[in-house]
Amino acid sequence: MTVLAYRTCPLCEATCGLEIEVKDDGGVGRIRGDRDDVFSRGFICPKGSTLKQLHEDPDRLRTPVVRGEDGELRPVTWDEAFTEVERRLLPILETHGRDAVAIYLGNPTVHSLSAVLYSRFLVRALGTTNVYSASTIDQRPKEISSGLLFGTSISFAVPDLDRTSYLLMLGANPFESNGSLATAPDWPGRLRRIIERGGRVVVVDPKRTKTAEEASEHVPIRPGTDALLLMAMVHVLFAEGLVDLGRLEALVAGVDDVERVAREFPPEAVASATAISAATIRRLARELAEAETAAVYGRIGTCTQEFGTLASWLVDVLNILTGNLDRPGGAMFAKPAAGGATTSGTPGKGRGVKLGRRVSRVRGLPESYGELPVVCLAEEIDTPGQGQVRALVTVGGNPALSVPNSDRLQRALDHLELMVSVDPYVNETTRHAHVILPSPDTLTKSHYDIAFYQFALRNVANYSPPVLPPEAGAMEEWKTIAKLALIAQGAGAATDPSALDDLVIRGMAERAGLDPDEAVAELAPRVGPERMLDLMLRTGPYRLTLDELLEHPHGIDLGPLEPRLPEVLRTASGMIEVGADPFIADVPRLKASLDRRANGGFVLIGRRHLRSNNSWMHNVNVLMKGKSRCTLQVHPDDAGRLGLGDEAKVTSNVGAVVVPVEVTDAVMPGVVSLPHGWGHDLPGVQMDVARANAGVNSHILAGDALVDPLSGNPVLNGIPVDVAPA
Predict the structure, then answer these.
(1) Hey, which bits of 543-694 come out as E strands?
(2) Which DSSP symbol is given to 471?
(3) Structural contact between residues 141 and 168, judged by C-beta atoms closer than 8 angstroms
(4) Is 292 helix (H, G, I), strand (E, B) or coil?
(5) Which of 177, 457, 616, 668 is at a distance of 20 to 30 A from 426, taking alpha carbons?
């Protein structure tokens, strides 16, 4: 006997609906796509069906572990674990101050309802300025660009795939990634339908990816030069009189400044640097301007480069100048049911964003959105002096693999006086921890995509109650994070986490203009994340309730994206600040890059794979089957010239790796490609499948010195390397 349960897959940004068989003995049966899901309509990728394997994984921690005096991690009770955190954390705070503690919020945080809601309160409780997150690895340029243009860090204009007739895509491979910062299930099907209805999909990428193969046209580009291409296209729009702001003309400030700086970037000036002919650049600009509807979309490849913020800015500049911003078929803004920065406050006006309010202790890199660039973390730990980081809290994530110059960070983690990790595995990062507090299995947690609905390609709302009951001895994730916050505040390890929960919900109600007593009574008997979510839905733009979502297990379709300007703006001026000073001031640096001459060496780029999500999914045997995917892709001409055999040694200015070679003409000559998220053979890692498929860590080759100065985001694409036979 089985029953069917429905939930949203939490393993990437696509938010696909799942249909899960639950056996009468509590076991998990078949998992397939939910054909009635209002957003995904049955689409599922290989990762979604592995929630069963994740649930049953013997390597997953089910009880807290604490490191003893002999250096070994041993199981303890929850009370013992929190007592150990209190015993070690409070003296550090008392002796060295709040900034002696750092916190890192990993990518998995935003895939968890409890973690995304409660982690911010842990940050506040710690009171440290040493706050880091995965956002400063691969998306901070987009967040800063959107903030300066539109007023908030999540004001992302996303491509309206279902109605566009022309899509220009840079630095993205959604056939493998399932899309990013533009949430939608079945990106492949949506892209194919653009072509089926007579439209065009143009992919600009140094590699002929699966997405590029299926596109109308693939335009190879030299890695790291996307901003030059986009600026040259802006030049063409102005030079040929193709600029048409449409109804937004009165809302856009700074167009003259953009025209002025673009004059120095004619296609002929950037053709050599980008490896794209001037004729092609002009044609792309004209096609974009002349299309009935069009959108430009850029993602990780445009962020993780030397000019990441400028490239992200220019993506939106092209959408604006061609009149495609905020119109059906163009680039549009979502309206999330649970509210957010673009639905709260005064419509059409706000405070804008303030960046660089402080700088990091060692290098002086600027803060953004309350965080420091994660490239600073290692040096803040291993550099002595006032304010040195002595303790670290990690919530999800695996910075020991994901941060550039990974070897340095791993050495630094060994010297911490305390490391506390909220994580279900002993992985490359948490192997350094003194206390690991396991988050519950996904199937035992409720789910709602607070973050991803902020930039979804269609307005939907879908809540998933837990599929399975809690495992024996497990603690709800919100309680784990709340207890850490209470310890940091000095309330004691024995304090009931509901104390923080009650304080938080009353504050939320008051900020929403409600009477706290009445709101708490109306939301009863719910507590924790469900109570917070219910309040957010009730005060959101659609005035939904959690009970309504429970009555619709396949989700509620709130309709296609609709024009939201000027209401969505939160800039201080109430305008789209297309010529904001930080953008314009950085253009001379872009211009100076044209004077560089290629040294004839190789440049390294990353790549993604459908069966992987950063370093997450490498302990699932069914996803690791088949030939190794952690290979160095090399063009045949380069492989022949170098005499490469089965393995190659790749060397950068900070490190070297030996990796299997895969010869393919999918990469440009002079470019080599190595995926990130691998390197699982480190001592102490307790993930058997991952260790058996270890691969190499590409971020050993990425230096932490070279960053995009506007965002502090590291350069992970276009890294100069030497390649030789191993």
Answers:
(1) 556-560, 576-577, 602-605, 632-634, 647-651, 656-663, 671-673
(2) P
(3) no
(4) coil
(5) 177
Residue 468 in contact with residue 22, Cβ under 8 Å? yes
Per DSSP bridges, beta strands 602-605 and 719-725 are: antiparallel
**Cα(252)–Cα(565) distance, integer angstroms:** 11
Q: Crossing angle for the helix pair 255-262 and 226-239, nearest 10 degrees?
A: 110
C-alpha–C-alpha distance, residues 161 and 433, integer Å: 44
pLDDT, one tens digit per residue, over 499-545 is: 999 999 999 999 999 999 999 999 999 999 999 999 999 999 999 99
User: 536 with 339: CB under 8 angstroms?
Assistant: yes
Q: What is the DSSP string of 494-551?
A: TS-THHHHHHHHHHHHHHTT--HHHHHHHHTT--HHHHHHHHHHHTSTT---HHHHHT
Identify the pLDDT of residue 599.
63
- Give the Cα separation of 540 and 448 in Å (integer): 14
Cα distance between residue 300 and residue 174, in whole Å: 11
Torsion of CA 144, 149, 151, 152, to 10 degrees: -40
- Tokens for 560? 């296609």
Bridge partners of 725, per DSSP, are 648
CA dist 650 → 72, 216, 224, 637, 657 (Å): 34, 34, 19, 17, 5
pLDDT at 597: 63
Distance CA 136, CA 373 (A): 5
Tell me the one-letter amino acid at 615.
S
Alpha helices in 451-492 (DSSP H): 477-488
Enter the pTM of the model: 0.97
Pair 556, 232: CB distance under 8 Å: no
Place of tokens 């204009």: 157
Tokens describing residue 160: 């309206």
Element (H, E) at 309: helix 308-321
**Tokens at 722, concatenated:** 């030497």
Reference 300, options 36, 608, 46, 1; nearest CA is 608
What's the Rg (C-alpha) of the chain?
25
Q: pLDDT of 92-138, one tens digit each?
A: 999 999 999 999 999 999 999 999 999 999 999 999 999 999 999 99
Q: For tokens 């939301």, name the residue.
A: 523
Please tell me what DSSP assigns to residue 166: E
Supply the pLDDT for residue 616. Answer: 83
On whether the CB atoms of residues 633 and 607 are closer than 8 A, the answer is: yes
For residue 627, with 0-12 CB atoms within 10 Å meaning exposed, 13-18 middle and 19 or more buried, which class applies?
Answer: exposed
Distance CA 10, CA 48 (A): 8
Token pair for 96: 């060295």
Distance CA 294, CA 309 (A): 22
Task: List Cα–Cα distances, 597 to 592, 593, 601, 638, in angstroms.
Answer: 11, 9, 11, 20
Q: Closest by alpha carbon to 656, among 722, 725, 704?
A: 722
CB contact at 8 A, 436 and 421:
yes
pLDDT of residue 131: 98
d(CA 403, CA 77): 32
Residue 32 · residue 18 · CB < 8 Å: yes
Cα→Cα distances 723→501, 634, 645, Å:
54, 10, 12
